[in-house]
Automatic annotation (TrEMBL):
The lineage of its organism: Bacteria, Bacillati, Actinomycetota, Actinomycetes, Mycobacteriales. It comes from the Bacteria. Pfam families: AAA_31. Gene3D superfamilies: P-loop containing nucleotide triphosphate hydrolases (3.40.50.300). This is ParA family protein. Residues 3-178 form the AAA domain.
């Protein structure tokens, strides 16, 4: 079954979008289809994939501004990246935080109701850096959370907060939700990063993915040229390609049975 996974951390700039796109690049490289749902008003996944949102483009905002079962199917577009589809986002999505509708946090889940996701190996939700309504809406719609964090002093505390949020959503309304993995991103070879990585592994054990994503400028260069990291040849892109592919193999994403 195709799993819906959210890449989360309320802290900004930790690598949620980079990890979303890196995993999508790995899946695409293996000939597997993936759907990215951009749930960030910054729209960094959308622009990173080289997609331009116009007035006519249906976005995540449209899915969340009304209650429409199955509407997600109408919002899916192909992207310049082979095998990668997208539900795009732009700054309009920020308005959702002030929407007081009773069913607001369920609308994203409802938008996916009845949709056949079997053509995709995974559906990846790129989350905004907040614990607001948008994040709750995602947590109601997905099966699992991949917490992305940098190995810094605040990371253990940040994961604790996210776990508490997950527990609240688990109680009601989404009992199937689990924290699937903690991914260390933007890892440098400094003593501080090594120390914090050890601290996270001590605290969370096997929940922390064995593969950490190194901080390498090729990641930014690939992003700014809208290029999948597996198609990027500059700098130390190869180390990033290996890291994202190794990370993918650790996650609960079925890379066997999906059709390309
Ligand atoms: N492994 C990496 N190596 C080098 N730079 C990276 C890496 N991962 C992310 N970056 C850069 O760090 C910045 C923040 O990364 P990214 O946008 O993925 O974080 P984010 O958690 O999605 O941020 P936000 O919370 O704003 O959505 C970007 O400029 C990105 O290109
Ligand atoms: Mg982001």
């Amino acid at each position: 079954m195709t799993r819906k996974l959210a890449l989360c951390n309320q802290k900004g700039g930790v690598g949620k979008t980079a990890t979303t796109l890196g995993l999508a690049s790995s899946l695409s490289e293996q000939g597997l289809n993936v759907l990215i749902v951009d749930v960030d008003p910054q729209g960094n996944s959308t622009t990173g994939l080289g997609v331009e949102v116009t007035e006519d483009t249906m976005t995540t905002f449209d899915l969340m501004s009304r209650t429409a079962p199955g509407a997600a199917a109408d919002a899916v577009i192909a992207t310049p990246w082979e095998h990668v589809d997208l539900i795009p986002s732009n700054e309009a999505l920020a308005n959702i935080e002030s929407d007081g509708a009773n069913d607001l946090i369920f609308r994203l889940d409802i938008a996916f109701e009845g949709i056949d996701l079997s053509p995709y190996a995974a559906v990846l939700f790129d989350c905004p850096p907040s614990l607001g309504k948008l994040l709750f809406a995602v947590l109601c719609a997905v099966d699992g959370v991949i917490a992305v964090t940098e190995p810094t002093i605040d990371s253990v505390r940040g994961i604790e907060n996210l776990q508490e949020t997950i527990r609240n959503v688990q109680r009601r309304p989404n009992p199937r939700l689990t924290l699937e993995a903690i991914v260390l991103s933007r890892k440098r070879t400094t003593g501080e990063h090594r120390f914090r990585e050890a601290e996270l592994r001590d605290t969370y054990g096997d929940l922390v993915a064995r593969t950490a994503i190194p901080e390498l400028t090729a990641r930014q260069d690939a992003h700014s040229t809208h290029t999948p990291i597996h198609k990027f040849s500059g700098g130390k892109a190869l180390a990033l390609q290996v890291a994202y592919t190794d990370l993918l193999s650790e996650l609960s994403i079925n890379t066997e049975g999906s059709v390309a």
